Each structure stands twice: as structure tokens, then as C-alpha cells.
Amino acid sequence: MIDVRRVRQDPDAARAALARRLDRPALDQLGHVLDLDRRRRELVVQVEQLQAARNAQSDEVARRKKAKEPADDLLAALKASGEVVRQLEADLKDLEVLLDEHVMNVPNFLLPHVPDGEADANRVARTWGEKPHFDFTPKPHWELGVTLGLFDLPRGTKLTGSGFPLFTGMGARLVRALANFLLDLHTREHGYVEVQPPYLVNRASLTGTGQLPKFEDDLYRTGDDLFLIPTAEVPVTNIYRDEILDAASLPLTMVAYTPCFRREAGAHGKDTRGLIRVHQFDKVELVRIVKPETSETEHQLITAHAEKALQLLNIPYRALELAAGDTGFASACTIDLEAWAPGVGAWLEVSSASTFTDFQARRANIRYRPAPNAKPEFAHTLNASGVAFPRTIVAILENGQQADGSVVLPPALVPYVGTDRLTPRA
Predict the structure, then answer these.
(1) d(Cα 117, Cα 414) in Å, to the nearest integer?
(2) The dihedral of CA 343, 347, 349, 351: what is its sign?
(3) Which residues are CB-contacts of 111 (< 8 A; sequence separation ≥ 6)?
(4) What is the pLDDT of residues 101-111, one digit of tens each?
(5) Which residues are registered as beta bridge partners of 257?
(6) Contact 11, 34 (CB under 8 A)
(7) Are 354 and 334 in contact (CB under 8 A)?
């Protein structure tokens, strides 16, 4: 949630900052926020002035009664002004609800160094690894998956629908191995605390991280108004919702392995073959809650942790600094990690590392006390996929494929899978 005081103090700067997103509806929302905030403050002044006048009249009534003087005129005036105050306070409450609704639909302000432009202005910050060279035509993962017996997409569709993959045999073992490898990496080497959160969350949790109200159509909702998590970021960040943390406890670092569920409304027909775009997938998620003054360094750190996973998996990747027009609603700056998939000939996003500054903390009311007895301040939050499974599995299969149809696994994963090579079924 944006800081309305910041917008009020310099509305032109706020408009200019938001205009970088190339999102006209967001600018319109900001205009509504400015107008509603002005009207709210005007009502507050009216109520305060009336209350002050009523206090003075009450004092005069008390004086007259003590002096045994008539006060009927003042009592009538107090009754009339009381009705006015009650109506103004009701109007003020309605106005504040409307203001909150509009504020919730204004995206975060971007950090100054985020590149201008749309997706075609995304900037490659660095690359790692060498693309493999084959003396044969590399196969896409959906062909490898069938010959290796790793997944059965048609039967997954039969069970649920398109975009719900069924992993089988060594494919199911590969999913389990990847989860254990990533959790061990991030807990043992990077110092994260492992948590196992609920897979269903309430509206307050999704509002806290920015998915609601804007993206409700992308979520799976149950009949009792709970939602399947689109990412572990939602429950893990909200663990500390409405709490005041000790400065000494920061940074708080957490990692979680969960399934994720996304409708991705409007995405039908795009990259639907194989595992590239699915509605249910597993992911290991990293979350950090930090002091504001360290958040830029923390963003570099959490990105490096996600990159380390790809390096150990021997997956060539590139780090992409997202441009303003391609940065997500709640993010102030995002770096995507894209793995090279030679079978489909494309870079595939496997991690998105974002800093949200105080945007999520304001929505979720996550604060910390900088010093004993100091006024609480909003923390900063960050997260990164560390990493998402389907496209990572795509990259493992397509980069490791051999001419005989087998797939050589990265050495770091071998102890978890129990073999160094996946071989075609007889």
C-alpha cells in the first residue's frame, strides 16, 4: 500500500513516479486517492471545528446552570449540532472506506534505477553458464518426459483439467529430490528458517501481499471464502501480520516448499504445451523481512541465493532487470532469472526476486521498533522463487539430454535422486 502522506506532500512527483508504469488506470486510481484524501481532510476539519464549538457551548451551559441562568437556547443548539456531527462522522467513515478501496488498487512506486519502458526494455544484467551444444536435434521436454516415463499430461488433464500435470515414477522422484535439495541448500547454506504454511489463506493474507483485491480472478476460491495459495509468499509474509518486531530479530528469513495454484486468467492458449505454463506447480519460496536501510543489499542477497540454486543445477541462466512497464503490481524492483531451455529454444522464467519496500508491510501492518521505546516503523519485505519447479525441470531435462535419449542429472541432485542418469523406459 502506498503512503498517502507521501502522495499528499508531492502529488506531482507521485504522478510522475506512477506514470513510469505506463498504466493509465493506476494513474486514475491515484487521482481518486488525491481527491478523496482532500475531501476526507476537509471533513475532519469540519468535525473538529464543530466539536470545539460544542465543547465551548457545553462549558457555557455548565456555567449558566451554576449561576441559575437559562440555557435552553444553548441546549437546543447542542442537540442540533450533535446531529450534524453524527452525520459528518458517518460521511467521514464512508469516505475513509472508499479511500481505502482506491488506495488498495494503486501499485507500488518503483525504485529510481528500474529501467523505463515495457517488456522489450527489460535489461540483461548478467548471464551464467554456457548453452550446451548438441550433435543432434535436442528434443523438447514433453517428448523426453514421455520416453523417460516422467509425467503423464493427458491423464493429468483427465483427473482435473489442462494445466494440472501428473508426475510419475522417476518424475515424481525428481520433484521430491528437487524439493529436498533446495530446502537443504537454503536452510544449511543460506540460513533460512524452514516453515510449512497452510495451503489455504483468507482475504486478509492475500490483501496483505497485494494479490487482493486486484487479482481475484487469477485465484482459486473455495466456498467458504478461503483461497488456494498462488505462492508461499502469501502465508509466509503474513506470519507477522499485525505484529511489531524487535529490530534485533531482523532480518527474518524464511523458506517454504508448497504447491501453488493460479488460474492465470487471460493466459489460455499461451505456452500451454508441456510444463511451461501450468495451473498447479511446486515451488520453494524465499521470504525476507528486513530493516528499510538494508533492503537494497537484501535484494541482491536474495537474488544471489536463487542464482546459487541454478548454478548448482548447472542450468545456464540470465538475470533480467524488469522494466517499469513489466514490473508487478506490488514490486518496487524485480529481477527475473530465466533458464535456457534448448529443446524449446527459449529463456524460461524460473525465479522472480522482488523487493516491495514498505508496500506489503503497510498492507499487512508489519512493523518493527528501531530502538527500545521508539515509535514503530514499517519493515521492508522481499521474496524470491528459490526456485519454481516445472520450468526448472524443463531446463534440467532439455540441457542434460543425450543422443541415446537419456538425461544426465546435475551432480548436486544425484544424491537426492539416487542415480546420475534418467534412462528411457524399455
Answers:
(1) 42
(2) positive
(3) 332, 333, 355, 357
(4) 999 999 999 99
(5) 284
(6) yes
(7) yes
- What is residue 264's three-state secondary structure? coil
Helix (H, G, I), strand (E, B) or coil at 341: strand
Active site residues per annotation: 262, 277, 349, 352, 391
pTM: 0.92
User: What are the domain boundaries of the chain?
Assistant: 4-103, 119-422
Q: 43: closest CA among 3, 92, 116?
A: 92
Q: What is the DSSP string of 371-423?
A: STTPPPEE-EEEEEEEEEHHHHHHHHHHHHB-TTS-EEPPGGGHHHHS-SEE-
Q: What is the pLDDT of residues 92-103, one digit of tens each?
A: 999 999 999 999
CATH topology for the 119-422 domain:
BirA Bifunctional Protein; domain 2 (3.30.930)
Q: How far apart are CA 126 and CA 113, in angstroms?
A: 16
Residue 342 amino acid letter? P
Task: Classify 368 as helix, strand or coil.
Answer: strand
- C-alpha 294/C-alpha 271 separation (Å) is 38
Q: Which residue reads 516422467 in cell numbers?
A: 150
CATH code, 4-103: 1.10.287.40
Residue among 262, 296, 256 at smallest CA distance from 386? 256
What is the pLDDT confidence band of residue 359, given thresholds at 50, 70 and 90?
A: very high
**In sequence order, which residues have a C-beta less than 8 Å from that of residue 414 and are 6 or more positions away?**
420
Beta strand spans in 243-370 (E): 243-246, 252-261, 280-290, 317-321, 333-341, 346-355, 366-369
Q: Dihedral, CA atoms, 276, 277, 281, 282, nearest 10 degrees? A: 40
